[in-house]
Structure formats: structure tokens, C-alpha cells
Amino acid sequence: MPDGRLDVLVIGAGQVGLATGYHLKRKSLDFYIIEQSTRIGDAWRKRYDSLTLFTPRALSALPGLQLAGDADGYPSRDEFADYLQDYAARWRLPVATGVRVVELARDGGDFLAMLSDGSTARSRSVVVATGGFQKPARPAIAAGFNASVVQFDP
After folding, report:
1. 3-state DSSP helix/strand/coil % of the chain, to nearest 5
2. How many whole angstroms separate alpha carbon 35 and alpha carbon 93?
3. CA dist 67 to 6, 24, 81, Å?
4. What are the pLDDT digits (tens) for 95-142?
5. DSSP conformational letter for 27
6. Whether 22 contacts 91, CB under 8 Å
7. Which domains are seen in the chain, by residue range?
């Protein structure tokens, strides 16, 4: 984890977290991606063996990198998991794996994330990209946020 204040802390290194990282890097912002799994793509690898995506490769790719193979074909879960890992490596996205956010709080004008490895991350903004099928946990403080703070739940 880098020292100092980040522009953006991204929580989750799935499709949304990695695509966000791609765009943040193109804007030259200082950011870091936190992923609780030990490897990028493990959320896919832990699903049933015969899983294939229900969208073809041409529609499943992240910005800046197409999925190899037949554009009209459907990638397997392992193929897609490996693609996510390759995507992060290709764009040299700063990802910490095996670390999760255990607490996120406001500290002055910043966000302060306490991480499972005992470290902290300070950032100006946070993107929560923890994926589908998660139960949103919105802290009580969020109820008092100004309407200009955009909050999304699945």
C-alpha cells in the first residue's frame, strides 16, 4: 500500500474495479485497488466448473483489451478469470490481493480505510466495486450525506 493520500481507493478487483483502474490510470490519478481474494479473478474461479459467460467475448471485454478467441463465442469461467488477471498485469494496475477493507470512515475531508493487514489507506474518493450478489452495508453516516454525494446500491 502506498504511503500518503490517494486520489481514489477502489475496493474490488473484478470487472468494475479493474475498468475503473484503467480509466483512473489514463487520467494520471493516484489510486490503489484492494481485492480480498488471493488472486485477481478468484470470484470467477470459485463458481461451478462448467460456467460460461452469457455474453460473447466481444461484449465481455474491458476497455483497452479484447478477449482472445472467437468474438461471438462465450468464454469459460477460468478463461475470464485469467483474462482479468492478465488485464491488471497488462495495464500495470496497482492491486493489493488478499487484503480487505474492515472499516471505512470519514476523517476530515478524506476517507480512511482500515485494512485487514493492519495498514490504512487515506483517499479523497472511494469506489466500492465489490460485485454482484453482495448485501450492501451502508453506514449510518451515509444518511446524512448531502445529495451531491452519489450512492449506488445493487
Report:
1. 25, 25, 50
2. 12
3. 31, 21, 11
4. 999 999 999 999 889 999 999 999 999 999 999 998 776 666 777 888
5. T
6. yes
7. 5-144 (3.50.50.60)
